[in-house]
Amino acid sequence: MNYPLYIRSVPTENELKFHYMVHTSLDVVDEKISAMGKALVDQRELYLGLLYPTEDYKVYGYVTNSKVKFVMVVDSSNTALRDNEIRSMFRKLHNSYTDVMCNPFYNPGDRIQSRAFDGMVTSMMIQVC
Amino acid sequence: SLRGNELSSGGPGTAVRAGPLSIEAQWALSQHLLSGGPGRGVEQPSDTVLVLRLEPGKPPASWKSAWHRGVVPLRLQSRSGASVSQLGLCPEGGGGRRRFKLRSLGSDLLLRRSSLDTWGQKTSLLVLEGMGFRVGQALGERLPRETLAFREELDILKFLCKDLWVAVFHKQMDSLRTNHQGTYVLQDNSFPLLVRMASGLQYLEEAPKFLAFTCGLLRGTLSTLGVKSLVTASVAALPACKFQVVIQKP
After folding, report:
1. Residue A43 near chain B (CB below 8 Å)
2. What is the pLDDT of residues B32-48, one digit of tens each?
3. What is the rounded distance in angstroms from the CA atom of residue B54 to the CA atom of residue B63?
4. Shortest CA distance to B30 belongs to which of B50, B9, B3?
5. N or C: which end of chain A has fewer CB within 10 A?
6. How far apart are CA B244 and CA B246, in angstroms?
7. Rounded Cα distance, B217 and B233, in Å
């Protein structure tokens, strides 16, 4: 059952296009997870790396132990963004999501409406764009 | 002679042996005795079965077996007719042997009282378990480390026994056993919530209240990690307890 707990894009025109890209990338995420499961690697990372490149965009993935998936779509023209920066962004997202989960007034499975979460995403987007 | 709900008294000052009484009768008697003088006590080892012990010392072995069958013999100090009839026990017959027949003393109300208490307790335990569940969900998100650590079910259970237990109780679970078919038994020989309470069989009946939240905690953490389960706890002797986790197949 894959439905978004949170989805946000900037700029806001062509939002649907991003939603569609995120949705199709979920298949790739699932593939990566199952491949990892079969591999005999000791360390199985939460960061999945570049899921697939298109001509305009790069899509990155991240999955938690609770099978919550984070997908990030970045403009290809943004060559300044490096792998470790993407990793740290995912780590911030994961930490903020954990904080949302620990909020007793949040029901797991609901859409995320936390202002703190919004603020963290906004500041990340400002930094990148 | 003793039949059904009858008591027989050998006259004032002598002990009376009574036959099996219905739950209502037992409850009525227990209430009467509680309001009576010193030296009378009521024990309630489990939900609705009462054992009334009025004389010091343990009941004879035959009573214990009767108790397990759901039939409870009583021993009463004989009472004056007046106080006994307050219960709805009406004396009949005369002479040295007096017989009392137990009238239904609004037994509906009495039964409702005892079942209300059970219902109240069951609801409270459910609420506690639910609270533990929500906390477990959050911990299942917060505690696992930075790598995808769980290859299989057993890894998740080991995580519960080590990381979760250490985070919440500052100790590890003492043993984990499984039948490899979805049932796990986690044993803690000195469960921190019980360790300061008693050692042995004292307060055994009170122990479930202190385990309900923890059962929910285990169930919630498992739920976040993708495992649907049913968790129950049992205590044989404080402070050791066992948590049984049964994985529910979807």
Report:
1. yes
2. 444 433 333 333 322 22
3. 13
4. B50
5. N
6. 6
7. 12
Is B232 within 8 Å of chain A by CB? no
In whole angstroms, what is the distance from residue B70 CA to residue B133 CA?
35
Separation in Å, CA B190 to CA A94, B148, B150, B240: 35, 31, 28, 5
B144 lies within 8 A of chain A by CB: yes
CB-CB neighbours of A12 under 10 Å: 8
Residue with tokens 């905690």: B217
Structure tokens at B28: 């009525």
Query: Would the pLDDT of B81 be above 60?
Result: no
Q: What is the pTM of this model?
A: 0.67
Please tell me which residue of chain B has the smallest CA distance to A105.
B134
Look up tokens 């506690």; give the residue.
Answer: B128
Across chain A, the runs of DSSP E, i.e. the strands, are 47-53, 57-63, 69-75
Burial of B27 (0-12, 13-18, 19+ CB in 10 A): buried
For residue B18, the cross-strand partners are: B74
- CA B212 to chain A, closest CA, distance in angstroms equals 19
pLDDT at B158 over 60: yes
pLDDT at A40: 64
Contact B226/A67, CB-based, under 8 Å? yes
Sheet hosting strand A57-63, strand order edge to edge:
A47-53, A57-63, A69-75
Q: What 3-state DSSP class applies to B166?
A: helix
Q: Which two tokens stand for residue A49?
A: 């790396």
Which of B29, B77, B74 minimizes the C-alpha distance to B53? B74
Which stretches of chain A score pLDDT less than 70?
A: 1, 39-43
CB pair distance less than 8 Å for B148 and A97 = no
Helix, coil or strand: residue B27: helix
Residue B58 reports pLDDT greater than 80: no
Number of alpha carbons in the 13 Å side-chain half-sphere of residue A21: 24
